[in-house]
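Build the 3D complex.
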Amino acid sequence: MLGKCFGVISCISILYSFFVGTASNISEAIISSASKSVSLVISLMGSMALWNGILNVLKDCGVIKKLSNLLKPILKLVFPSSFKNDIATEEITACISANLLGISNAATPLALSAIKKMNERNPDKSSATADMIMLAVLGCSCFNFLPTTILAIRNAFSAEITYQLIVPIWICSGMCMILGILLCRILGKLYGKN
Amino acid sequence: MEKIKVFSSFVLPCIIFLIGVIFLFGKKDYFSSFIKGARDGISSSLSLLPTMCALTVSISIFSASGISDFLVKILDPVCDFLKIPAAIFPFVLTKPLSGGASMATYENLLENYGADSFIALCASVIMASSDTVFYVLSVYFSESKIKKTRYALPCALFVFLFCVILSSILCNLFF
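Done.
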């Protein structure tokens, strides 16, 4: 997948440059860009270490558990059929909590096992149920409480606006999440019951 | 707006304060769980490097060849209609497809237009508010061998489009 991405982008760009005569720019770009990626990753490493450490502390002292308990009444409304039949409710709440805190490498395995459990009771095993789609859409667009990676990248490019972006990001990701939930519900009704 | 900016400046200190309190009064040795998480953070950022290296080269070729400017010029009327800056288009295209490629295009924008430019601010909000749609959907559903994903993809893509438009509205409002 990424290989094809690389192939398409690079080949088309290079062919284009032969036509318009920007090949010398490309040579310069190739020489300078490879080392740029290394310096960027190194400048990101500090903040990745800090925030991953903090999230691990929160996970170990049970904040995710507490957040899950708080979220349960709300999620009952978002995933009606799973909660009614008590399928994978633990996984769903833990997955959404992890997504809210931005620990996506913890959220993904939880989501996979939730979908697996939902599929066991699914009459048509090759077709996604409304609750599975809801979980997937929320996995794509979830409220981002700690956008630390983005702030660290911006800092590496010596931006002046860093933490000031937190509130706009909260508004944007929150509204996207709400829209995702509503849209899933509406489309679910249109596509018929499952 | 001023109040919101003051509030923003409290978020990160409050979290560190909370962590400090946990270290001081927690029943277990939470510092060791911090260290474990931090080690994972370092190794995961290192594991990003090989992919990032390839994609950064590819994206900088894309940008240096002038084809990105050409595409931006073509797409300008559409973007103008949606009230989003046309220059973020290469980034918006790669964002749902691949995390690595969108990271590379994002950095390319920050470098070319300056991190505090309107374009870079919009891209930052989009980067933080959305995920790699195609990747997430394929990982979530392929594990359980679900082929018919019904309205999952159109729904997720529509939310992403909304996110792009909303980001430029919010950046206009805040900065």
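The longest helix of chain B spans residues 30-64.
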